[in-house]
Batch of 2 targets.
Target 1
Amino acid sequence: MMNPSILNQAKTSPSSRENTSARTIALLNQKGGVGKTTTTINLGAALALAEQRVLLVDLDPQAHLMLHLGIDEAVVEHTVYDLLIDPEVKAADAIVNARPNLDVLLSEVDLAGAEPELAQRPDRQQILKRKIEPILDRYDVILLDCPPSLGLMTLNALACAREVFVPMQAHFLALQGVSKLLETVGLVCQSVNPDLRVSGIILCMHEAQTTLAKEIVTDLEDFFEQASQQDVPWSQCRVLQPPIRRNIKLAEAPSFGETIFDYSPWCKGAIDYRKLARQLVEHWHRVIAPTAEVVEPKAEVPIPVSTPEPAQAPASTVVSISPPASDVIPTTIVETKPDTNSRPAETMEASVSSQVGESGDSEGTGDSGDSGDSGGSGESGGDVEPVVSTSGTTAMTTPDCDIDAAERTMAND
């Protein structure tokens, strides 16, 4: 079931989606246990939360995507196996809605026997692409969960996709496997899908504090930096940020049939997948509309607070003159007769001067700015900003909630 607001937007603005289709991405790694299914589900769920219309396609006969999302097998009428084997089954017939903005094409164990059944068909590598094409305009992103092999199901995924994401761990053997995978993608580009590109490496179960992980990441970045000058399918590939940190919650969520956002929405794994989805969406928007006009916000010109000129008064009257600004040298000195029976009035400039030395102390903090929980700050630089109003008082303004800071705080808790 689609999001009604997005469907209405598509109906009222048909030109906005003209000649556009879903961004189809295959998550591929011939090595098992590196986080392909976990990344497919949780990245898809994060994109759905970001108002992207997402379709997940499970091409792995283990059918773990169904288990991870808690979908009852009894309610599934058609699977990817039926879609590939039966010419009468359409993709729309096999789609199951799992979450808002998140649809799935599920797998089953029988998919393991599909390869010999399709061996005699001349178009066996293009079947999935042909079946998916009629529904491309329904989605913004389609994620293909590939099996840990380079068989017919993987070739169907690579023929259908436009991009490849490689989930991997920062280990030496995984690094060697990536080189073999890139060779395979190069062969597919030559024969099946010349538009296919490897666009991202997703680091899963990452331990950034280890020396090995740092060396592997450096090697990857150097390799893709050199490839950017070559005519190869991975010339635009990059290590996607942030890496997905090792988190036990990601391993626990499938046993409850939930995504990480259902199970533990503020754990480290959920935060990382949410940030990764946000970075991808922002990058895609920049690529799709690189020439879009950027409207720069107009800078507000501050109005200086001018010192009012003293009114002329009779000689017998006591006149209080406001002190001049620090960078102006007074040229006239007016002598007045002091009044011993009255106290000199406090002027606005004196109040402003006191604020220069005492701004940030209104909530009980000093110069150290360490009491970030109390709401005030001294020199912390960003939590609370002193604003000098024209009335001579200091107004404390609280900035908008920092999502990243909130996520870090929740993760630490």
Target 2
Amino acid sequence: MKRLFFSLIAILCLSQVLISQSQDNQERPPNTAVTFPVTIGGDFLITGTFQSYPGERLDQFVTRMYIQSQENIIARSYDIESRLEAIETIDKAPLRGIKLLRADGSKLDIDLLKFRNTGDFKHNPYLERDDILIFPPVNLKTNSIEVIGGVMKPGIYPYMDGDNIKTMTELSQGLNPAFGEITDAIIYRRSLDGYSIEEIKVDINSSISLKPGDKLKIGSQTPLFENYKVLVLGDVKNPGYVFIPKNGVSILKALEGAGGVNEFSDIRNLKVFRSQNFPPGYLKDKYRIDFNDKKPVVENTDNKAVAVNIIEDIISLEYLSFLRMSPFNEEDTAYFMLETRLQTLLNAQVFNSSEKNTFSSELANYTVEHGDIIIVPALDPNINIMGQVAYPGKYKFVPGDDIKTYIMKAGGFGKHAIQDEIMIVKGTTREWINPREDSYTLEPGDYIYIPRETIRSFSWYVGQVAYYLGIVGNIATLIILLLSVNK
């Protein structure tokens, strides 16, 4: 009985010791007798000496360090700009050309990207005590190779000494069977000054060394599936990018690709803008439009937001066209500046033919190309009243109603309205029409402008009188001088 009692006491004591050790292990850092140090140097997210575990491969260790440093970098970013900068830095973590220096003096060249794409464990060795990892800097602009054509994963890859067609094909996850049998490749090599490109045709099994900046096309006969596209904005069912063939499509086909126009689209005032007519980087910087972006374009709400922003911008520029065709007097220099600005920023192909057959033919025959922007405005079903009326704004167009009727709808003339100088501005052409002298027909979208008489202060009249008296005085003085000379 005593033996059983003492056994129970011993078991309870042992259990308490084991529980205490377990708690200590959770609170203490890893046992250095179990882990071992590995040093990270070079251009990695973090550098220093860290603990690795027995049986841990390089990819496991790098991934663990990557996640830890990623969390720390983002946690230290307190505003959106610095956070985006941090994410961009994280995305540039190097995976090729890693140097693994062993404690015994041996050196290994590691291509971790190749392991991840091919599963070759040669490039994912087990880590050992006192290993040193040196990560190279990454510069995809000057030290990379672009792989296109008949591979599974075309893209831009960091360059590594000794790269050839075989290694780049492996990095691109092998040949794409959809292209059939591929027997050759083309290396496009740009000259140092950038003014010429050498085209080198080689066998697919060639061991020719590649150079930084090369563009490698796997399969000389493989088509280039580039993202040729136009941007359709405005009053269409699905505004956004529309993919087109390399040689372009007709406007009608592009509109079909955007889902077609809406019921009240002002198709007769459609405009086509050439993106190259905008200042370099203008569309990309202001609207995030990049026709050369090789990432796939997906439908999202950003396309609609971009459409709204661009249309508003263009409308603000078109406001200048009111002034350009107005009968108001302007200084020649200001007028020339206005014309130049319009010519530069509103340099669009406009379709506003009044003949239906001719118009449809123009849209079917006019070809839009990669980078073009098609703007389809909405038809304004109103008459716009501007100027000296009580309630300026939009009033629904009613066939047969004349200018006086619309002015009455707008609350009548204002106190300072010049009633005999009313002007009509056509909504389609922005042409100014004098209704007292020219024949006209009010149409939806037209503007009625009632000017305001200029209010002059007493000092202005005094100044004018003084000005003209000064002129008279100068003329009188000149006459007296002439008379005195003739005597």
